[in-house]
Amino acid sequence: MAGNRRALLAGTAMCAALLLPLALPAQQPAEVNRIVLRVNDRILTLLDYEMRKTDRIQILQSADIPPEERQELLAGVGRGVLEAAFGEMLLLSQADRLGIEPSSGAVDEAIARVKQQFGLETEQDFQAALASSGMTMEALRTQYRSSLAMQEVLGREVRGRVAIGEEDLRRYYQSHPEEFEVPVRRRVRELVVLDSSSLDGAERRKLAEDLAARIEAGELSEAEVERQSEQGLVTEWIDLGWVQPGDLDPQLERAMESLGANEVSEPVPARGGLHLVQVVELKDKELLDFSAVEEQIRAREFGRRYDEELDEYMQELQVASFIVSKPPPEAADFQVTEQRRRVDPLEDKLEPSLGSPQLGVPDAESDEG
Questions:
Q1: Which residue from 33, 88, 101, 197 has the highest number of Cβ atoms inside 10 Å of its Cβ?
Q2: Taking 70 as the threshold, does the pLDDT of residue 180 lie above it?
Q3: CA–CA separation, 100 vs 110, rounded Å?
Q4: Range 287-296, long-range pairs (CB < 8 A, 24+ positions)
Q5: Per-chain mean pLDDT for the chain
């Protein structure tokens, strides 16, 4: 769940600047210039942090998540902002080292995609969205340039580490057969002797038992069902289609689970009357062929191994990086481990700067490079 939530926030934050107005708490200039995080030559000032925190709070407040989970995430929003920024700064610093600089054309394509995603069909709509968010086109392009740079780093340096051969896929298939079993399926129809008919309870029960016997013997014609339906005694045949465990009312499922093809249940008291359930066709449980699930397994295994390689790669970047962390009080639980931290003899002499790079957020699709 945590991984999905982080992906959701990352993907949403990519376009948050188009949708969210910016409202920052008042700060003294010297304070907002304070550096709260440095990774190699990239820095995050308190102003950058506050802007990110505002966006994340607005995203969480509008997200479709349970209130308890929302409160938990809001309580840790400061740490979450710094953790996200830390990962981005590591990747952007690596992009600098590799000389990765996305082209203007690539940025244009990324912006065109977000226009389509948000239904911004005209340039006027797009400019209005920018204006309402308080973002300039230059800032938006910078954000997307950063995102594309991070995606290219991951594509070059992580995706290539994930090698999955057919033997790996077959091994998974053979060791997890329960994941690829199709349960017993029944094509079912039902006939209901209606509670709303003019018959009393005993008469309805007798009619239902008589109909069940005639269905079992193959003697109940469609014309007879139609005639009794017109009299308000029964429904017409109701085709329920192919059903699996959990699809029907538990009483009806219990009544049909022992039925073979063309067999009919005893009358089952349920909503609206006495139900007669007939299994028209039965398919036993089966194991899907490997060829039918190969791509499903490949996608699952790629995602799992990619996550493992990504974790290892980010640790490698951390160990190799020069890092200084001075989190705000509400984010004091954000810690750079001793393994990651390099002592900076000049950390108290660093000149604060408002010119720190705009740090984009990786696209949720960048998990696959």
A1: 88
A2: yes
A3: 16
A4: 287/177, 287/180, 287/181, 287/182, 288/180, 288/181, 288/182, 290/169, 290/170, 290/173, 293/173, 293/180, 294/166, 294/169, 294/173
A5: 82
CATH number for the domain including 269? 3.10.50.40
> What is d(CA 236, CA 346) in angstroms, rounded to the nearest whole number?
85
Q: Cα–Cα distance between 86 and 43 in angstroms, integer?
A: 10
Q: Could you tell me if 349 and 263 lie in one domain?
A: no
- Containing domain of residue 205, as a range? 184-284
3-state secondary structure at position 43: strand
- Helix or strand or coil: residue 38? strand
CA distances from 189 to 78, 109, 181, 242 (A): 57, 52, 25, 9
Final residue of a structural domain among 232, 258, 284: 284
Pairing relationship of beta strands 268-270 and 323-325 according to DSSP bridges: unpaired
- Structural domain contains residue 173: no
Overall average pLDDT of the 30-43 stretch: 87
Tell me the pTM: 0.63
> What is the pLDDT at residue 264?
92
Q: In angstroms, rounded to a whole number, what is the distance separating the alpha carbons of residues 195 and 350?
A: 83
State whether residue 281 is helix, strand or coil: strand
Spatial contact of 146 and 93, defined as CB atoms under 8 Å apart: no
Q: Are residues 129 and 194 in the same domain?
A: no
Helix (H), strand (E), coil (C) string for 252-279:
HHHHHCCCCCCCECCCEEECCEEEEEEE
HSE-CB for 236 with a 13 A CA cutoff: 6
Is 286 or 22 the better-scoring residue by pLDDT? 286
Task: List CB contacts of 41: < 8 A, sequence separation 6 or more.
Answer: 93, 96
User: Mean pLDDT, to the nearest integer, of 122-135?
Assistant: 85
Contact yes or no for 36/82 (Cβ under 8 A)? yes
Match 């249940």 to its residue by tokens. 265
Nearest CA to 141 out of 90, 117, 105 is that of 105
